Amino acid sequence: MTDIDESPSDRPRAIRPAWRRGLGLMGEAPPAMIGLAAFALGTVPEVAADWSAILTAVCLAVAAVYTARYAAQLASASSRLEWALSVPAIVDLLAILPVPLALASGAGPAPARLFGALWALKLLRLNPALAMLARVIRNERQSLASVTMAFAVVVLISATLVYLAERGAQPEAFGSVPAALWWAVTTITTTGYGDKVPASLVGRILAGGVMVSGIGLFALWAGILASGFAQELRRREFLESWDLVVRLPLFRDLGASALSDITRLLKVQHCPAGSAVVRRGQPGDSMYFIADGEAEVRTPTARIPLAPGQFFGEMALISGAPRSATVVAVTAMRLLRLDVVDFRELAARLPELLEVIEAEGARRGAAVPA
Ligand code: CMP
Fold first, then answer.
1. Are the beta carbons of 96 and 63 closer than 8 angstroms?
2. What is the pLDDT of residue 176?
3. How far apart are the C-alpha atoms of 92 and 134, rounded to whole Å?
4. Which of 127, 128, 118, 131 is nearest to 32 (CA)?
5. How far apart are CA 51 and CA 39, in angstroms?
6. Are the C-beta atoms of 317 and 287 separated by less than 8 Å?
7. Are 178 and 155 in contact (CB under 8 A)?
């Protein structure tokens, strides 16, 4: 495989409407960042003393930019009231109103600029990964709640034990369970400010146990979130592949169960225009189905166009010989890749599919010069 870049940043824009939407949203981020910088600088007394008017003007300009965008979105919304009451629209409104309203109500430039902190919400909303994080947390809420509960129990028990062990020697630091809770939280998170330190042997052994169990609980949290993210990514990949697989003529007559098996085996691969997907003479480890875009097969004597729905790269998998031709992406392409191991599994499960692929491979092989 050559010149193929599967990184999101290089995905062809023409076939990534969601990605393009993402880019559009990112265009909204710079004003928020400028506004946040003005808000933060405005809290530095030396800067605010000399630049107050400019910082306030920047904040108002940012609010004006968002006002124009808000008005445009409102005008183009199919149901304006419904859009205005949605969470994104409310966040947009919070990016517009507070600073000018505070100024108009006579709060003074410095306090008014503090409302600029609300532009951070805008950045949060523009982050596409946030929706995914929210979904993962929702999916894993029970496991996360169990670990949180375990965390709370360890904090409470360790605070009680350290209270029993230390209250005599250090009544000001460990004189009550609520006072000891602070120590328990900073210890279980392994933050350890050192403002409260157990002096007795029992207290120190306890501290060690709390630290170790804290690391274990956080590792559990991280593990739950990581597996949740992996599951969510697999689900998204499956949905994207499914949409493409059902469009391929080769799979049109298959039942849902076979389609689902195939979808699990195929991997979506994006490929920029002009790149070579396979090169003549190289060993072959995958075949490809064209979901979007156009390719060209280049043999020493011919150039054969391939359209969406067609496949290539099957000959090397069937014969074990090197690639018989170079296949180049004429336009940006979205391919479904079937690796050799999965090809064999699919061939065993759906022999009629293998027959069709073999017949096409044989027909093409007859046309390729040695
Ligand atoms: P493979 O030999 O694995 O890699 C190059 C691919 O180009 C080949 O499999 C076929 O899928 C495809 N190919 C080769 N010759 C032709 C042809 N004459 N017509 C269409 N496709 C071809």
1. yes
2. 96
3. 20
4. 118
5. 12
6. yes
7. no
Instruction: From residue 363, give the alpha-carbon distance in Å to each of 180, 275, 357, 369.
Output: 80, 26, 10, 13
What is d(CA 228, CA 226) in angstroms, rounded to the nearest whole number? Answer: 5
pLDDT of residue 33: 94
Residues whose beta carbon lies within 6 Å of some atom of ligand 1: 278, 284, 297, 299, 304, 312-316, 323-325, 327, 364, 367-368
Residue type, 177: V
Which of 208, 255, 243 is closest to 336 using CA atoms? Answer: 243
Mutate to test the pocket of ligand 1, among 327, 328, 343, 360 (most ligand atoms within 8 A of CB): 327
User: How many angstroms separate the CA atoms of 324 and 314, rounded?
Assistant: 10
Q: Are 34 and 59 in contact (CB under 8 A)?
A: no
Q: Following CA atoms 340, 345, 347, 349 in sequence, which dihedral angle do they give, to the nearest 10 degrees?
A: -170
Please state the rounded mean pLDDT for residues 286-303.
Answer: 96
CA 272 to centroid of ligand 1, rounded, Å: 20
End-to-end CA distance of the chain: 22
Confidence of residue 369 (pLDDT cuts 50, 70, 90): low
* Ligand 1 centroid distance, CA of 312 (Å): 6
Sequence-distant (6+) residues with CB within 8 A of 91 are 121, 122, 125
Tokens for 202?
């029992």
Distance 12 CA to ligand 1 centre (A): 24
Would you say how long the chain is, in residues? 370
What is the whole-number distance in angstroms between the Cα of residue 16 and the centre of ligand 1? 27
Q: What is the pLDDT of residues 225-254, one digit of tens each?
A: 999 999 999 999 999 999 999 999 999 888
Among protein residues, the one whose CA lies closest to atom 8 of ligand 1: 313
Q: What pTM value is reported for the model? A: 0.70
Give the pairing type, strands 333-339 and 326-329.
unpaired
